Amino acid sequence: MAAEQINSILVADIGSVHTRLALFDLVEGEYRLIASARARTTAEPPLGKASLGVERAAQRMSELIGRQLLDESSEDLFLMPESEGHGVDAFLAMGSAGRPMRVFLVGLTPEISLASGQRVLAGSFVTITGTLCPDDLRSETEQLNALLTSDSDLILIVGGTDGGADDILLAQLHKVARALSLIRRGTMPVVLYAGNQALRAHVKALLTPYTTVFIARNVRPSLNDEQLFPAQIELALVYDEYRTRCPGGFAEVGRYSQVGVVPTVQGTISAVRYLSTLPSAGRGPLCLDIGSANSLLVSATRGEPHYVVRTDLGVGHSFPEALEAITPAQVRRWLPSQVSDEALWDYAYNKQLRPATVPATLDDLLIEQALAREIARTLVDAARPAWKTGLSQLLPSFNPIIGAGAILAETPHPGVAAMLLLDALQPVGVVDLRLDPHQALAALGVIAYLKPVVTVQALETGALVDLGTAFCPLGRVRTGHGAMRVEIRQPGEAILRHTVRGGELWVAPVAPGTRVEVTVSLARGLSLNGRRRIKRRLVTGTAGIIFDARGRPLAMPRPQDRARVLTAWLKAAMGGQLPEAPPIESPEDLHADMPDLATPERGMLAMASEYPAWDEEWPDASLS
Amino acid sequence: MPHYPETSVIKGLARVIRHRQLPRGVVHRRTLVTAGAQVSAVTVVLQGEVLREYHVLDVAQALKWPKATPAQIAEAILVTAGQRVRLGQELAQRGRGRRQRVLQAPTDGEVVEVDEGRIILQSSERAVEVLAKIPGEVESVENDVVRISGTGAVIQCAWGNGQFFFGSYVFLPQEGFVALRQADPAMSPYRGKMLISPVPVERAELTIARQAQVAGVVAPGMPASLREFAMGLTFPVMLTEGFGHRQPTTLIYRLLHSNMGRQAAFDAALPERWSWEHPEIVIPLPAGGMYAEVPSVLRALEVGDQVRLTRAPWDGVLAEVVALPAGAQVIDNGLRVQCARVRLPNKREVIVPLANLETLG
């Protein structure tokens, strides 16, 4: 179907834990997000069929909106074409589930071509297994082994400028060809070439006898010019092919999708890039997505995106790896109660065993939120060189800040989601906080490949949840001393006046969607956008209006004050009320039917030798 | 709205179908069974080899023959591509008697290429054998995947250390692991038997178990910090619940108790995301005229189902689903999630997130 004829678009995001569906359609002349639904991802054993999760989410969506999406008569996943209010015009799929693609990087210079290659890969769910360049001091045998024993899915070859010298890169190509010629069994890696364009014919002649070769435009056409986007587009195709070869049944989903299965991160990058080109964008948006297996941070300034993707940081499948990278001590900084290293490691490995479970106690929830904050800090640290912030530990003035992933989007109170974003990213100034609970941002980024007008209109018509505006002054005042004098004027209500003290977080109790005028006067040593008094007209979000006088950089409480201070912050974020602890059950009551194991039934052991073997008839098998 | 929970199979009698295949990166050598064959748990069904490092051997250099022509080098080479060689085997030879020069294989492996005066050899690191792990019948052999079917009690566990044992089991005596220390290993009734502990184990207990020469240990939990230690043990360690001080699921221990005296397959497979192997205990049982069905992993949750709760504060508790509220519910920590109302063994009814329930197959 031609893009002009497409009105309704269903986008599936196959995440590590959840498969989410988002339906966009034309409503009163504008494209909007009209429904979302989710089901447990079914790509992993014992089901091993990603389409089943899509099907279940589609059934759920049908029940929610009364629009039939699946053809019941088909055994396979089959989405109905739109007709009389049922079905959809187009289906697109993206995914972050599955084993990250293993990539071996071949280039010429570590500082130039290999660095560009790494930036190409940074926007995808990949693990770099090794690198090879002419400066490599390893013997020929060692280089060969590095390439062949890395068990890579892709070899990315970059290097050389267009029209520049080609003999050194040609020698590298011969090494790759020799290595590929030796692979007799197992998986043959595919090749993506994004180097000197003059060598395209050589690349094809040398490597196509052994494997599939993808060609992209040179990532470094000249020394001063870096073009990552064409290689990233080609990488998305490679990723799609990789997904279809992977276990999990992605091939079936990809068959129905007009773009195959695109990495979710590509969708997010595309949408964030679009947001940064809006006239009101300022420095541009920042999106933090913390998933079960992967996490990413994407920012963009005037159409130029920067991103960090970590396939080893997450609050589910990757919990142990994240804890290893972050350390228990760093996580404990955010916990009001004392939790030992051992308890944290137990928690991490249990969560990895059952990544889809949700914390049911407050203590468990706080552990996961603590890890999420530190994952965000790690991503921010990794992104700083690209932001060129020098030695400053402050976050550049990105606006809006968007949070995605269940740990951020599903909290006891919207104020907690806002606090998590503030704690994790520590923005400075006046910043709009948003949530993406439906993974709509990435979906709209993928839709942009097909019909950009949907992306534009749906983002303007509330595809994201507006959490609220946060006032985060630069600087710090002593704990307990007046930091911000706040006046909030709302129509038909008395002026709300409050003094926020140093070290405090205050969420103003104003109903969502209210138009208000906020005046903030700051104490000496603090500033908001370079000023000590600021007046803003704004519409309140679901969390109200947030005033953060905890200082920038954020002043973390001393260990002896942690319980009191962190509980106070949490209480403030939750609108002044903390959940009550439930009564504790006696383990004896809950495990009362445990047999007396130490004393076997009379004669049971003696009878053992008289038991029939497994394949003999057993006349009176009585099994519980 | 149907909800499809996770499943941990705990069944007294089930038809068990398992697919056995070589792990990723292992090269297939032989399939040792055919469809219709009866296998025991320890029958080797597949053989393979882990091929590892490549060795690029320059023949002229090794034979100290720099002026040799390509034809002379080709004549000196004694092996061809695809040939398997042993450590020390002659790959190339020049001259005779005292002037003889020989190039020997630096490792066991396979010659993958002989070209331009070079021999490229890939070393074989180790042989790999895949066991049937359950007694039964081979249903099919396709693409180096062996499908085996049997019947028995099935208990899926949370974690295993990668080892396997088939044999009989005993329960931990009332005195605990101390009783094992006192016994002479040679005379001990625990020697060579799988030990079922209803309480979590620590390093000291696993060390005692090793000294007492037990065949393995099953326990509800152990500290996660012992993972590496447990993976270094040569006997299976299986956790029925997970890491830390976990309460046991009573049904698992009742099943093991009621089948005391039988032999069982303790497959302590290390859980991996994309692997079809799962740590499990299979107690082979004849169906005895009863219908043994394949455990379902596709069934939607229904009122009346027995479920296992997997998260604190009720982890390991078996409960009965009494209601499935349509909308999201607020749980004790304030999260708003889809829930089931369940009846605990003490008859109290509580709401539990659907994500924290497992059906039992």
Could you characterize the architecture of this molecule?
The complex is a heterodimer of chains A (624) and B (361). By secondary structure, chain A is α/β, with parallel strands linked by helices. Chain A folds into three domains: 3-95, Ubiquitin-like (UB roll); 101-245, Rossmann fold; 264-573, no CATH class. In chain A, 33% of the residues lie in helices and 22% in strands. Residues 600-624 of chain A have low confidence and may be disordered. By secondary structure, chain B is mainly beta. Helices cover 11% and strands 42% of the residues of chain B. In chain B, strand 15, helix 4 and strand 16 form a beta-alpha-beta unit. The longest helix of chain B is centred in the middle third of the chain and has 9 residues, at 203-211. Classes of the chains: A alpha/beta (624), B mainly beta (361). The interface between A and B is large, with 90 and 91 residues.
Write the layout of secondary structure elements.
The complex is a heterodimer of chains A (624) and B (361).
Chain A: E1 9-14, E2 18-27, E3 30-40, H1 50-65, E4 90-95, E5 101-106, H2 113-121, E6 126-132, H3 140-148, E7 154-159, H4 167-182, E8 190-195, H5 200-207, E9 213-215, H6 229-245, H7 250-256, E10 261-263, H8 264-276, E11 286-290, E12 295-301, E13 304-310, H9 319-326, H10 328-332, H11 341-353, H12 362-387, E14 401-404, H13 406-409, H14 414-425, E15 429-436, H15 440-450, H16 452-460, E16 465-472, E17 482-489, E18 496-501, E19 505-508, E20 515-522, E21 533-539, E22 545-548, H17 562-573, H18 587-590, H19 604-607
Parallel strand pairs in A: 1-4, 4-10, 5-6, 5-7, 7-8, 8-9, 11-14, 14-15, 16-22
Antiparallel strand pairs in A: 1-2, 2-3, 11-12, 12-13, 15-16, 17-18, 17-20, 19-22, 20-21
Helix pairs in contact in A: 4-5, 6-7, 8-15, 9-12, 12-14, 14-17, 15-16
Chain B: E1 6-7, E2 10-20, E3 26-31, E4 38-39, E5 44-58, H1 59-62, H2 70-76, E6 84-85, E7 90-94, E8 101-104, E9 109-115, E10 118-131, E11 136-142, E12 145-156, E13 159-160, E14 164-171, H3 178-182, E15 194-196, H4 203-211, E16 216-222, H5 227-231, E17 237-243, H6 250-258, E18 263-267, E19 280-284, E20 306-309, E21 318-323, E22 328-330, E23 336-343, E24 349-353, E25 357-359
Parallel strand pairs in B: 1-25, 14-15, 15-16, 16-17
Antiparallel strand pairs in B: 2-12, 3-5, 4-11, 5-10, 6-9, 7-8, 9-10, 11-12, 12-19, 13-17, 14-18, 18-19, 20-21, 20-25, 21-23, 22-23, 23-24
